[in-house]
Amino acid sequence: MNNLAEKSITYAALKKTAGIFPGWSIFCFLLWILAQSFFLFYPPRGYVADDIILLGSVRGQPLISIQHLWEDVYNDDGLMLEVLEKSGIHQGKNRIEALEFLNENIRKNLRFSIVNEVLFRISFIQPGKSSIRPFLNTFSERFLAEASAVNDDELQRRRRRVTFQFEQLNRRNYLVYRLLAPTSLLVDLTPGENGFGGELKLAENESWYGKLAMLIINELNQDLYSARVNLSNHTDMTQKILAMFPFATIRLTDPETPARPVQPYLIIFYMFIPLAIFLFYLAGLIYLAPDDEQNGKDAASV
Amino acid sequence: MPVLLSCYVIALPFAIGIIGKSFIVADIFLLLLIGVSFYNFLLRGGFRANPADAGFLLLIAASLAGKHVLAEPEAFAFELASLIFMYVGARVIAARIDRRKKLEKLFNFIASLTMVLLSVSTLIIFFRHFGEVGLTKSFFSVYGNFKGLFNYTNQMAILLVCFWPFFITRLSDKPFFKLFWYFIVFSVTVSIGSRSGFWVIFLQTALIELMPFRRKKVSKVFLRFGSLIAVVALTISLLATDSGLQRSLGDAGTGPRSSNVLRVKNFREALNSAPDWLRGYGLGCFDQTHVHEVHNTPFSVLVETGVVGFMAFIAIFAFYALKFYRSSEIEELPNLKFALSLAWLGLISMGMFHYLLRNRSVWLIVALTIAFITLQAEPQNE
Q1: B residues 47-76 near A, CB within 8 Å?
Q2: DSSP-based three-state secondary structure for A117
Q3: Is B140 helix (H, G, I), strand (E, B) or coil?
Q4: DSSP three-state, residue B249
Q5: Structure confidence by residue, pLDDT tens digits, A64-75
Q6: R_g of chain A computed on alpha carbons
Q7: B275 contacts: CB under 8 Å, gap ≥ 6
Q8: What part of B 311-340 touches A (C-beta under 8 Å)?
Q9: Rounded Cα distance, B227 and B240, in Å
Q10: Residue of B53, B61, B98 lying closest to A286 (CB–CB)
Q11: Please, what is the angle between helix A77-87 and helix A132-180, to 10°?
Q12: DSSP H or E stretch at residue B362
């Protein structure tokens, strides 16, 4: 049989060839089952899961640089190995093997992207579904812990600074009031109820000196007001904006959120598999089909 | 010769887009040819196939597994449809040429078409050089290179590479007659400004002049080759300021358009996609996420359809090459095998620098080769 010759292909010829070579049909059928099952559990390009982290901030201004923190955590082999061990997705006991696994399977598939100044996303891709959430949850918790530690420390430092600034300005204003304004001009000198310090009010005074004093003190009050607002922004736990921009770093994504396939239109891909196997099967039948001599057909019959 | 086939061949240089830039006038005739064949297939309940067709089915199957086909569905669908259309079209054309006389007529037809094309192109080019630029604007690219009615200059170059051997092997052996046409073809190719086009046509022409078994005296061979060089030199001296000529000779310049920087960068990116070569990047998907397609046909097939698709692609053309190489010359057409060989040499060379799987002239050469092989194998019932 000359498989390299041109031959007449009819439906009957293909059917006959399939009957002569049943192994080819069985092989292609098994190949289809195998391919469909494999891609069902391990779809092309794998699965991806995301964790959205909201960084601690003061009214939308982040307290720490996420880029630097990410680089520190991502490149810290010790930290990453701890996370890997805790997640349980790698069972090797050898540290070298673990490092290889970390570099080849984890780091290449772990990414972060910045959504806005305070929101960023950690993405993790794996061929199968089962290993994604255990690692990502563990990693995110650890990352959150690192971020929270730095975040809280930075917040305390900033609070101390703004408190000092406010106190300093308040004290300055008080001294200026005392210098410029005689007692008769001062109406009120009581500490504020919320602990921010006393506020002095000037009585209305028609004298030129009184007006000049009021002008100078008004100007100084602007700084004091800004300092008070800044202090409030850093310490007031009742402000509504904390719902949107909390002081603490938190994870917004539920740890139970399932991974999703990376490949878009995956259902179409699942239709391509049987089509591709069928074409492969047909190609084999054409190759294996008997030539015209064997069939006894006239070469120009078709 | 079949009317539809003649119309298709004539329409090839008229690459005027009907639907966008991709579906041109010639495609209507090819579609009709395919329609007629499909009707015959339905009537007779079968078709003729060979192992290369099996290889093609395998190539299509492999292309479905591409990694990014569903991320770039339009590009994939377009490229797949083009490939199927071109291959089926080539097989249909080959099936229509079922007599040696038809093949001879088509051979002569292509030679005549080439002569007309070269003559008209030369007139246009010289009119532009010595006459009104505005009137010839549509035949030149924005950079001043001749492209005929094609979208890109390279398409014109590829058509000439495919058809030039048919014309030159039919030329009378009178020296001055030949030199005149050499001057014409080099004037056209330098105006196109394609480096690969210029040197491939030069190679084809040199091979014709240098084939010792075609000449009785070796001195004559060198005389003819010297004349060829003289023609090239004359063309250079007349068109020395033409940037297309400079580019043809290899001066790629440093600008982003003409230099090789982008191509090398693209090539490197294609090499970096090696981990995906098991499944393939996806047919037609590479240039969606990179600067442009890989400018190398076999490498492009490897990158886009993976190892399986690449092996299928090689199998298809290896089958046809083997059959063609083992065939003898058809008695009535001693020059056809030589002309087809030169055309294939040109295509293989051009394929190293261009993506050819969507080029209609290339698939016409494939069709002629298949017809040549088929006519060799079958007894003729005249």
Answers
A1: 47-51, 53-58, 60-62, 64-65, 67, 69-71, 73
A2: coil
A3: strand
A4: coil
A5: 888 899 999 999
A6: 37
A7: none
A8: 319, 323
A9: 19
A10: B53
A11: 130
A12: helix B360-377
Q: Are A118 and A63 in contact (CB under 8 A)?
A: no
Find, among A126, A159, A122, the residue nearest to A142 by Cα.
A122
pLDDT of residue B314: 95
Residue A189: predicted pLDDT = 46
Test A4 with B48 for CB contact under 8 angstroms.
no
Nearest Cα residue to B294 out of B307, B276, B281 = B281
First to last CA, chain B: 15
pTM of this prediction?
0.78
Amino acid at A299: A
Tell me which DSSP letter residue A184 carries.
G
Using CB atoms and an 8 Å cut-off, which of residues 229-288 of chain B contact chain A? Answer: 279
Residue-level pLDDT at A293: 62
pLDDT digits (tens, 9 = 90+) for B128-150: 877 766 777 888 887 778 888 88
User: Going by DSSP bridges, is the β-strand pair B46-49/A57-58 parallel, antiparallel, or unpaired?
Assistant: unpaired
Residue B163: how many CB atoms within 10 A of its CB?
Answer: 26
More reliable by pLDDT, B196 or A137: A137
**Cβ-proximal residues to B52 (8 Å cutoff; 6+ apart), any chain:** B315, B316, B317, B319, B320
CB-based contacts of A19: which residues, under 8 Å, 6+ apart? none
Q: Which residues in chain A have Cβ-Cβ distances shorter than 8 Å to B39? A: none
Sign of the CA dihedral A228, A232, A238, A241? Answer: positive
